[in-house]
Amino acid sequence: MNAAPLRFVLDPLGEELAAALRCEADVFLERYGNTAAEFEVEYGPYLDATGFMTVLDEDDEAVATARFIEFGPAGLKTLNDLSRPPWGVDGLRSARAAGVDPERTWDIATVAVRPGAGREGLCAAALYHGIVTAAFANDIEFVVMIMDSYPRQLLTALGMQTQVLPGTVTGEYLGSPSSTPLWANLHRMFERQRHEDPDAYRLIFQGAGLDGIALPTDWRRRASSDR
Fold first, then answer.
1. CB 171 within 8 A of CB 88
2. Average pLDDT of the segment spanning 201-216
């Protein structure tokens, strides 16, 4: 356990947001070769509907960050990107075939955890806990994402089962040689996890074991005008 607790921030602003963006940029540049220019092209159109959550260390540097996109005028990036190679499918049609309601969906665009501090597992668990807790607090039922095979394996190992969006397969995407378009109903995902992996359920859903991280007491998002 760290001498000083880490701090989880939903909707970071100012220097906290800048730290979150540095973490995301550093991790994705190292892992997938994504540059700042690429991030601007890929995620710029969704900024008005974008949220962040981050874990800050004792120096207020971000050690983990997640970016998520709400349904808005630009739509959801994952569903839009299904029209691109290697898929070439109608994302909204694919989502509806799976029973996904886009207006009650968050697109989990990025999850970034800095390596090398010996607390990657704790920080990743905190982000997953934050995503599901904030989603339920904000009346979100579904998530979609295009996820690299390795982090998907980690999700599965924690009992968080995801489904492949209809009409898609694993392929190359934004520097990842092996990514899959996925969806999940959060209620069903965690009910299944509760039965099949109760230890993971207590960690991810209930937050038991995240004692080294100061968590928010209110998971509702700020009004857009306050972000």
1. no
2. 95
